[in-house]
Amino acid sequence: KELHFGDKGGMEVNPVGITITAIKEESPSPKSYVRKGIGSLQPEEQNIELVGTVVQVFDPRFFLVHPETGKRLQGTETGVAPALSYVMNAVLDDGSGNIRCVFWKNQTNNLVGKNDSEMAQFKDGAVSFDDIKTELLGEELKLRGRVKKNDMFDRLEFNVQFVEKANPEEELARSQNV
């Protein structure tokens, strides 16, 4: 599980005087995701499923986070042994368009089949990430997540929540049932 907060974000566990009466479902089931073509995506859509081919992969970017809160450290915190986190981007194409996909730490681990310590070896370039990038090119993926508008680059991006390799037999059967 991951939580992401902005610079002013925070979390209080079991605050005094607050009683929880209902619990929201943790995450949508795979059946509640809507399969869409990349060319028809709109900003802020959630619970979207994409299937496409990886056409470009970028090196992961590493940063330090607080080991308990996961909040990004800005270099001014003292007395805390930071934890390493990372994000990786890839471009997915489905024939109707392409989109930059953002894979946070857990999704990156699932995609490349590495754990945190194995990923850490790529941090300072001591070990090249090029072989992994080459392996991923042409890979068919099924991604579930949400669409975000990147205002800095004026483009849509797909924030990946679940990643798996596409099953060709499943996809063929799905296309014949449509």
Describe it.
With 178 residues, this protein is of the alpha+beta class. Helix content is 16%, strand content 32%. It has helices at 105-112, 116-120, 130-136, 168-176, and strands spanning 34-35, 48-57, 61-65, 83-93, 98-104, 140-150, 155-165. The chain is globular, with a radius of gyration of 18 Å. The chain starts with 33 loop residues before the first strand and ends with a helix.
Overview features:
single chain; 178 residues; alpha+beta; 5-stranded mixed barrel; 4 helices; 7 strands
Task: Give a quick summary of the entry.
It is built from 4 helices and 7 strands, in the order βββββαααββα.
Note the main sheet. Answer: 5 strands, mixed, barrel
Whole-number mean pLDDT: 88
By oligomeric state, this entry counts as: single chain
Number of helices: 4
- Which percent range fits the helix content? 10-25%
Order the strands across the largest sheet as they lie in space: 2-4-5-7-6
Q: Could you name the ranges where pLDDT drops below 50 across 5 or more consecutive residues?
A: none
Radius of gyration: 18 Å
One letter per element, helices H and strands E, the order comes to EEEEEHHHEEH
The counted number of beta strands is 7
Q: What is the beta-strand fraction? A: 25-35%
